């Protein structure tokens, strides 16, 4: 995933970015402060952290990869927001070994739950990092999108395997350890004590449309972006989305 502000990459990130940006604006009004403290767990090279810092907020990125954090610092410097981005090596399991509990207005938990041993613990830690009034942005791999993608590629046995596998994996070669349905994610969030505000399907069509069509057909990218945005809020499309985004708040 690339910078949400870059046009081609925005096919993958536009829906989440718009939801997140609106949530940050609401949190600014609620908190009565122009600058928020944002925690990005598993934030890697700063795909969301750098744009959030561009909005003027302070962002702490926790990631286990030193290479990713090095790339983050370079990216933040190039964007002129190095003073607002802090890189910390760590993971979701030992989150409070490296960051403060209850110290953040907003927590991003994007692409983390697929890889942790205990997704419920991952969500609890993200929630425990929030201040008494805070917002959680949760993004995880969707089961239905993987089933559809394998089927359209002609891998019907793998598609059926993913559909029936408890972890949503299509086989031993699957690089994603775990996938979720919308209900599974909202149940995890609700169990942590937060109120689910919205669920969006992400990359409903973007991963299925040939890249050459998007790149060469005049107006195709803009039209596809609008289609993704329109479909994202429709529950019927959550079941075929590549990713699922849950926005939740602690009142």
Question: What is the overall shape?
Answer: globular
**Based on helices, strands and strand pairing, what is the structural class?**
alpha/beta
- Which residue ranges are poorly predicted, with pLDDT under 50 across at least 5 consecutive positions? 1-8
Provide the residue-averaged pLDDT.
Answer: 92
- Give the name of the CATH architecture: 3-Layer(aba) Sandwich
Oligomer: single chain
Number of domains: 1
| CATH topology-level fold name | Rossmann fold
Cα-to-Cα separation, first versus last residue? 31 Å
- What is the element string, with H for helices and E for strands? HEHEHEEHEHHHEHHHE
The CATH H-level superfamily is Vaccinia Virus protein VP39
Helical run tally? 10
- How would you sum up the major sheet? 7 strands, mixed
Portion of residues in beta strands equals 15-25%
Task: Write down how many β-strands occur, each being a DSSP E stretch of 2 or more residues.
Answer: 7
Domain Methyltransferase type: 39-136
Pfam families: Methyltransf_12
GO molecular function, one term: methyltransferase activity
Keywords: Methyltransferase, S-adenosyl-L-methionine, Transferase
Describe the overall structure.
The protein is of the alpha/beta class and 251 residues long. The chain has a single domain (3-140, 179-205, 222-248), classed as Rossmann fold, CATH 3.40.50.150. It is built from 10 helices and 7 strands. The chain has helices at 10-31, 49-54, 66-78, 119-128, 143-152, 156-164, 182-191, 211-216, 220-232, 235-238, and strands spanning 37-41, 58-63, 85-89, 104-110, 130-141, 195-202, 243-250. Strands 3-2-1-4-5-7-6 form a 7-stranded mixed sheet, sandwiched between helices. Helix 3 links the parallel strand 2 and strand 3 (85-89). Helix 1 (10-31) crosses helix 9 and helix 5 (143-152) runs antiparallel to helix 6 (156-164). Mean pLDDT is 92; it is low at 1-8. Residues 39-136 form the Methyltransferase type domain. Keywords: Methyltransferase, S-adenosyl-L-methionine, Transferase. GO terms for molecular function: methyltransferase activity.
């Amino acid at each position: 995933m690339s910078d949400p502000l870059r046009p081609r990459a925005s096919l993958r990130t536009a829906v989440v970015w718009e939801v997140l940006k609106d949530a940050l604006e609401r949190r600014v009004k609620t908190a009565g402060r122009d600058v928020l403290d944002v925690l990005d767990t598993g934030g890697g090279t700063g795909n969301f952290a750098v744009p959030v810092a561009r909005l003027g907020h302070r962002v702490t990125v926790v990631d286990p990869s030193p290479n990713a954090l090095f790339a983050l610092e370079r990216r933040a410097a190039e964007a002129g927001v190095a003073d607002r981005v802090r890189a910390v090596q760590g993971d979701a399991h030992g989150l409070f070994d490296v960051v403060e509990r209850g110290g953040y207005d907003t927590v991003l938990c994007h692409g983390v739950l697929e890889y942790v041993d205990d997704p419920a613990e991952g969500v609890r830690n993200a929630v425990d990092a929030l201040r008494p009034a805070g917002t959680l942005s949760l993004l995880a791999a969707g089961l239905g999108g993987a089933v559809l993608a394998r089927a359209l590629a002609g891998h019907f046995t793998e598609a059926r395997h993913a559909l029936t596998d408890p972890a949503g994996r299509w086989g031993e070669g699957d690089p994603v350890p775990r996938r979720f349905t919308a209900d599974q994610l909202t149940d995890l969030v609700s169990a942590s004590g937060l109120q689910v505000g919205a669920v969006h399907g992400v990359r409903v069509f973007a991963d299925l449309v040939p890249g050459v069509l998007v790149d060469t057909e005049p107006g195709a990218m803009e039209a596809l972006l609008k289609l993704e945005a329109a479909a994202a809020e429709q529950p019927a499309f959550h079941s075929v989305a590549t990713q699922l985004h849950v926005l939740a708040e602690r009142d």
